[in-house]
Amino acid sequence: MTVTSPVLPAAAGTATTHRHTLLRTLLRNRLAVVALAVLAVLVLAAVLAPLIVPYDPNAQNLLQRLQPPAWLAGGHRAHLLGTDELGRDMLSRVIYGTRVSLLVGAGAALLAGTVGTAVGLVAGYFGGWPDRLLMRLADVQLAFPAILLALAVIGFLGSGLGFVILVLGFTGWVSYARVVRSEVLSLRTRDFVTEARAIGVTDTAIIRRHLLPNVTAPLATIATLHVAAAIVAEASLSYLGLGVPKETVTWGGMLADGQLYLGTAWWVAVFPGLALMITSLAVNLTGDALRDVADPKAYRR
Fold first, then answer.
1. Mind telling me which residue stretches traverse the membrane in this protein (predicted)?
2. Which of 33, 96, 119, 155 could form a disulfide with 57 if both were Cys (CB 3.0 to 4.6 A apart)?
């Protein structure tokens, strides 16, 4: 007797048809297609940054400081987006800032998703005192604003890219845990789980083979939204001087440097701000589209 999860297809053809249906549904959402295209460009820019940037992002030239963008009076095509207060090329710095933002967003989402999924699976499947203990820990963390908790931890441990990813990851696991727990609570009483127990399948195997595949859809949606939140949080920390080291180019650090020149050299702050806004918007639109594809009935009422 073979026990399978209802989410697992009975045949390869069924799985292929299901994937094609999901893909067609996603492609019908024009905003999602545009958002995915923007994300693809951002990822390529981040990966190929050393090859495509015209200048070293930290190279200073005080003789060309605060040079306007190329299309404005006084601008030069050698610096398409102008230069900052130290004569550094804005285009190069914005492209390099993409690397840090995407790395922090993806890293924090991966860490939070791993921790939160494990907590949710254990709490939802076993129930009892593990469920009560883990959910009370989640309640305690929710009582503290995430950004304040991140500020406190980074202020105590010190700044650095690794610390930022760890802090944003461990402050974001609660959302994953709660969603996974609620899904598992409804799945653990289903027939396929009961039958698996009856034939002697271990709890670990049930969780890995039957429960985990059934919670991947909501996890993908939460992960995309968490990426956007982590990107904004990293920019906020860098703006306050508590993110990655100052010599590392970040959009938040560029915003902090450019705030004093908004009246005279607006491009120093506007371009990194636009990059941050566009990236966050693209990630959020992608998350919304994935949510609709995963469960259209629940979100199109």
1. 31-55, 100-126, 146-174, 217-240, 260-283
2. 96
